[in-house]
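[Automated response] Your request has been received and processed.

Submitted sequence:
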Amino acid sequence: MNITDHEIRELIRLVESKLGRPLAAPVDFSLLSLEVEKTLNETISISTIKRLVGYVNDEHKPSVTTLNLLARYVGYPNWMALQMQIDDTTSGSLNEDVIQSSDLAEGEEVEFEWLPSRYCHVRYLGKHRFEVVEVTGSKHLQPGDTFETLVMCVGQPVMATNHIHGEEQHPIYIIGRRHGLSALRKISKE
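Generated structure:
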């Protein structure tokens, strides 16, 4: 069975929506496990959830049993039905949760999140360049770092080029490589 990363991200998004919270910490995984058991009278292990959301490193795709269970949890009869729905609504265009650097004015600020439990607040410097203002949960991004990117989109990784970290310059750093961004918003100045 061919399972794409996009389909897994969409499943996780639907699960998080039904659960009412992001799957970002052990307490969230425990809650989901309990909710699945309560809703469907079936079990899913916390370690399976951790692997699915990328909380632990595991390159294996989830089993069809796991996908069927979570598809039923979010209201579909099985994984194939959900997969067909995802494929029907997917096109080559990006979704509405997109920020393009060309649409920002210098000094505007953006915040985004990615799994597991990572957060970043950046300020736009112009010419597609951003400066990290605040960050939590990341070893590779620190306040004061700068990088360039053309677009940020929920569900897609951020290709941070010309990443300057202290005295080091890296050609590219991929933020949210496995599942993409889980949240994105422009910070309004009031």
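Summary generated for your ticket: The longest helix spans residues 5-19. The radius of gyration is 18 Å.
If you did not submit this request, please reply to this message.
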